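Okay, any thoughts on this one?
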Amino acid sequence: MVRIGAKKRTALFAILVTLILLLVLAVPALAVNFGELDGDGHPHVGLLVFDVDGSPAWRCSGTLLSPTVMLTAGHCTYGTSGGRVWFEADVDAGIPGNGYPGGGGTSIEFSEIHTHPQYVPGAFYLYDVGVVILSQPVQTNTYGALADVGLLDGLATKRGRQDLSFTVVGYGLQSVKPTLQADRVRYRGAVTLIDVKGTAGIPAGTSATFTNNPGKGNGQGGTCFGDSGGPIFYGDSNVVAAVTSYGLNANCAGTGGGYRVDTADDQAFINQLLH
């Protein structure tokens, strides 16, 4: 049975910023908080639907690194049996002809799904990276590029971190309160780096924290359920410094966490699958 609403995992008070379920009955799903419509800004970012036991179960966001390789979060890929992706900026507008969520239409099926070999569900934040291989190539003018190893460490030592802007892109929640909204639409938002030292028991070196839906001068957006796996780009570039991983607030406010992909271990896992 396809579950309705938002799938959330809680660990050490961290609430996953992800896994919006696919069909809305009572509670709709939303996108990047206080962001703006992305339109054609990031055509290499797609909406991924993952199957469990052959049926659509949840959705995440992800980034094309090559015509057939997409980067996402490990908690999105783990335990899944298949899936597919859409790259339209507004997936809602194409339903039912685009095949969402079961496939067909404009979707592209996954041929392979990979989760970091050291990923553990109970401590997802330690190795929260996954890769999907597409069954057919996608040609676009821009692909995501992995950040140089140690990029975030270098930035975190600089003064004026509040001025270091990152761009989050995804198909998740726009807001939780006072209203919910179920847009399967690509949004983007601006966030700033808080720290790379870990939080709420999450150790340093695995994740970075960013302003998340601050609303009052500390950024222009944030991430929420369904954005998981989506890119956190350095500035307005195509350089992926982290993937959206978790939040510390059920209302998707305050602080959001990105799983770092600027580490040697994670890049070794990703690069072996790039082709």
User: Anything to note?
Assistant: Residues 1-31, 214-223 have pLDDT under 50 and may be disordered. Helices lie at 74-77, 151-156, 264-271. The chain has three helices and 16 strands.
